[in-house]
Specification:
CATH topology of the largest domain: polyphosphate kinase like
Shape: globular
Radius of gyration: 28 Å
Number of strands: 27
Number of helices: 19
CATH architecture of the largest domain: 2-Layer Sandwich
Length: 695
């Protein structure tokens, strides 16, 4: 396919997405603390990238060259390209932080002090703080050539010290000291000298200031920070044999001692010192990455705000959804019509109430849910356990292989099992990524099923920052098929299932999506109107890319809103002229997936848990569900049109990977997330006015 149609390598496209995040940190129109937050997001994203994707490339480098030729891959070239891009981004990161963020913080009285800037009083404070809080954790170690090297903890900050013996000025010595950010705040507020100043110092510089006291026989020449991240993959020999959950538990114990995936060092470090460290810790050149003076910049998530709310985004309080939150009869409200909620613009209370009402209602007999990621403190999980105590049958499918949430999901699984919940765990070979809830209720001798289907997880915390759609429905076309999905998850050995309305991974998801695209292509070739509008996190699957290229060349108008990876290249003359793609990075993380097709005027609209990634379409249980309510279709379409007209936070996607801001559409500034909030607020007001008129 790559010979016929152009594509961008997946990880290169992802780095382009992370560049869009870094652009937000650079944007002078953003409130200052929001820019600091985007520095943290960029760093957190990059850390996970190296622990997962770069670790995979590093492993490929160990494969014999013959094998790589057979796989038609060049991991060495990929690694070099990634390192070149990341090095360039890291230099931009340092410039943004040092030349823009730090001076602007100072303009507001927030002074990030280094050790040489400290007043005598501040020096005393820093030394006292070090002795009282830090000394037990710093673990100073002298590095000696050919001796046993210390173990560097995953993602832990260390200070590497260049020094010489006071009695031997010529011989250089090296040592490392732990920066205990795993025990203490990264940013330590210093005693203010006046009410208009907010001095602080980073934990790294407190260690720097006190390092000479740890090596009294040496003269300290300089210090440089380092960090090692380790491969986060869980290596399971065979998912299909034995107890998969126990194998995952065993693998988790090894995650933090895995092989190196990135060794980060201060770019000012002398080459001789770097060579010594690489030899000491058995690192290759492709393991190393230059950064600035400070690492683990995701700690900026916890940057103190000193109560300066003016340096943050204006708060947009979640809108109530009274049709469900205030309904006298919650279930009757869902039976009457479908309900769409759009987070984080809407409050998550209606989803929580779905499960709390089910827990309390004596007519409810069964509750089912798929758990992929869930909040640490979850009212939903609490409601499920309460439901068991009230005699209801509760079934939870837990996907233990949700990366970086494995331990949390295992803990929840054990807690739910102890409460009497019927817990089902991961399948071998596939992940279950569907976002489904089901309530079965017997009322007046009749059975009724209610569903909640969503593009996002049952996670009360991320619902405040992730943009997702959720649908409440009692439509039997959907509830009957959702019941089949749960039957499959709970029994597995069911016969091949047929779905007429839902598109379900491992069954009809890929072929039905292909058929929908092919239909639009055929319509265009016949000279009839044809349009495809796709919103998702990532587009990587090569077969889907080929079909979209074919559709565009046939005359289908293809519009895409893609937050992250986009391996398809829009706007290439003669290849993808009819394909337009933007990415929106703003205060909320765009997480919803929407697939919209003209379909000869009989519009088909779907919400989904799946992206157009090979892993989603071929190796996961995903659920894509149709929207049948015409009013809900209009709301979703309006929200998508707002995003397509965004000329403040949208970036054009192209082969240049430059992420230029899209400035088309209206001459007036359109920030789609703000406009979406106000649009939904207007709908809320209209609904209240309508209710008032009826009374």
């Amino acid at each position: 396919m790559a010979d016929k149609y152009p594509i961008i390598e997946r990880d290169i496209s992802w780095l382009s997405f992370n560049h869009r995040v870094l652009q937000e940190a650079k944007d002078p129109t953003l409130p200052l603390f929001e820019r600091v937050k985007f520095l943290a997001i960029y760093s957190s994203n990059l850390d996970e990238f190296f622990r997962v994707r770069m670790a995979n490339h590093r492993n490929l480098l160990r494969i014999k060259k013959k094998t790589m030729r057979e796989l038609h891959i060049s991991p060495k070239q990929t690694v070099r390209t990634i390192q070149r891009i990341v090095n360039r981004q890291q230099e931009a990161f340092s410039r943004i932080f040092e030349k823009q963020i730090v001076p602007e913080l100072e303009n507001h009285g927030i002074l990030i002090k280094r050790r040489l800037d400290l007043s005598p009083e501040e020096q005393v404070f820093v030394e006292d703080y070090f002795r009282e809080y830090m000394l037990p954790y710093v673990q100073p170690v002298l590095l000696v050539k050919d001796k046993i090297r210390p173990f560097l903890n995953n993602a832990q900050l260390y200070l590497c010290i260049l020094m010489h013996d006071k009695m031997d000025l010529e011989t250089k010595s090296y040592a490392i000291v732990k920066i205990p950010s795993d025990h203490l705040p990264r940013f330590i507020e210093l005693p203010p000298t006046n009410e208009d100043e907010f001095p602080l110092i980073m934990l790294d510089d407190i260690v720097r200031h006190n390092v000479s006291s740890m090596f009294p026989g040496y003269e300290i020449e300089d210090t440089f920070s380092i960090k090692l991240t380790r491969d986060a993959e869980l290596y399971i020999d065979d998912e299909f044999e034995g107890d998969l959950v126990q194998k995952i538990k065993k693998s988790l114990t090894k995650r933090h001692v895995g092989p190196a995936s990135r060794f980060v060092y201060d770019r000012e470090m002398p080459q001789q010192m770097l060579n010594f460290l690489m030899e000491s810790f058995e690192l290759e050149k492709y393991d190393t990455l230059r950064e600035g003076r400070y690492h683990n910049n995701f700690d900026f998530f916890k940057f103190p705000d000193f109560g300066l709310s003016k340096l943050k985004n204006q708060v947009l309080p979640p809108l109530p959804y009274p049709a469900l939150e205030k309904a006298d009869d919650f279930w009757a409200a869902i039976e009457e019509r479908d309900h769409l909620v759009h987070f984080p613009y809407h409050s998550y209370e209606s989803v929580v109430r779905f499960f709390e009402e089910a827990s309390r209602d004596p007519d409810v007999t069964h509750i089912r849910i798929v758990q992929y990621r869930v909040a640490r403190k979850s009212r939903i999980m609490k409601a499920l356990m309460e439901a068991v105590r009230r005699g209801k049958q509760v079934s939870v499918f837990i996907e233990v292989k949700a990366r970086f949430d494995e331990e949390a999901n295992l803990r929840w699984g054990e807690k739910l099992e102890k409460a009497g919940v019927n817990v089902h765990y991961s399948f071998p070979g596939v992940k279950v990524h569907s976002k489904l809830g089901l309530v079965r209720r017997y009322h007046n001798g009749q059975e009724k099923i209610y569903n909640y289907l969503s593009t996002g997880n049952f996670h009360e915390d991320t619902a405040k920052i992730y943009s997702d759609f959720g649908l409440f429905t009692a439509d039997e076309r959907l509830t009957n098929e959702v019941s089949r999905v749960f039957s499959f998850l709970e029994t597995v050995n069911v016969p091949q299932l047929n779905f007429e309305h839902l598109l379900v991974g491992q069954f009809n998801l890929r072929p039905d999506l292909e058929a929908l695209i092919d239909f639009e292509t055929a319509e265009a070739k016949a000279g009839r109107p044809a349009r495809i509008l796709l919103k998702m996190n990532s587009l990587q699957d090569e077969l889907m890319i080929q079909k979209l290229y074919d559709a565009g060349r046939a005359g289908v108008k293809v519009q895409m809103i893609i937050r992250g990876i986009c391996c398809l290249i829009p706007g290439i003359p003669g290849v993808s002229d009819n394909i337009h793609a933007v990415s929106i990075v703003d205060r909320y993380l765009e997480h919803a997936r929407v697939f919209n097709f003209h379909h000869a005027g009989a519009e088909k609209m779907y919400l989904s848990s799946a992206d157009f990634m090979t892993r989603n379409l071929s190796h996961r249980i995903e659920t894509t569900f149709p929207i049948y309510d015409e009013e809900i279709k209009k709301i979703i379409r309006y929200c998508l049109d707002l995003q397509l007209s965004d000329n403040q936070k949208a970036r054009l996607l192209s082969d240049q990977q430059g992420n230029p801001y899209y400035k088309g559409g209206s001459n007036l500034p359109v920030t789609s997330q703000e406009e979406t909030y106000h649009y939904l607020k207007r709908l809320l007001v209209q609904e209240k006015e309508k209710e008032g008129a009826e009374e």
